Amino acid sequence: MATDPTGLRARKKQQTRAAISDHATRLFLARGFDKVTIAEIAEAAQVAKMTVTNYFPRKEDLALDTHDEFVQLPTTTVRDRRVGESALAALRRGQLAEVSARNPLIGFSGPEFARLVTGSPALSARLREFHEDRETALADTLAAETGAEPDDIVPRVAAAQLAGVLRVLFTETLRRTLDGQDDDRIAAGLTRLTETAFDALAPSLAAYAVRAGD
């Protein structure tokens, strides 16, 4: 049976990228983000310094290596919503499912990683960019799903509200993690807060972007 060289190269790249990120994270957790250099990461991962920067042009993304997944999580939930389900209802359901799964993408990162991110101005700034990119992606998705005109502000307003709630819940998860709460206690609290937060948006968004049947 012939081997697919393209597939092998892709897997090798994924393995190299993951190995670099793993070594970087261990160094960051041990010594702090700002005290670790790219050269030290390259040495730990046994690759050239240029290899590190080719995979990770920004040092911050060595620690926050989930940009695409983070940004796309709510947009995927909206695109895959059920018939008769609004964007608000889909995101509520999705958030509750992620809380139940203790998904790191919504803040279940553990105390060491939470301290790493919140203790570094550079990582905190990069995380804010993640949230901003997610809001933009969600606005684009809502515009496409509702057939909005380019100058229609409603998808952007809706995205700001929805992404804002997700951001508040993410920040609350980090706060509770830093306070020493375990994941089960955090999840119980976040379940209640998720219901409260999405209920607050219901008057304006309960009927917005409802998926029509075929």
Automatic annotation (TrEMBL):
A Pfam entry, by short name: TetR_C_14
Keyword Secreted attached: no
Name of this chain's protein: TetR family transcriptional regulator
HTH tetR-type domain span: 14-74
Keyword annotations of the record: DNA-binding, Transcription, Transcription regulation
InterPro entries (alphabetical): Homeodomain-like_sf, HTH-type_TetR-like_transc_reg, HTH_TetR, MftR_C
Protein source organism: Actinocatenispora sera
Start-end of DNA-binding region: 37-56
GO molecular function: DNA-binding transcription factor activity; transcription cis-regulatory region binding
Keyword hit for Transcription: yes
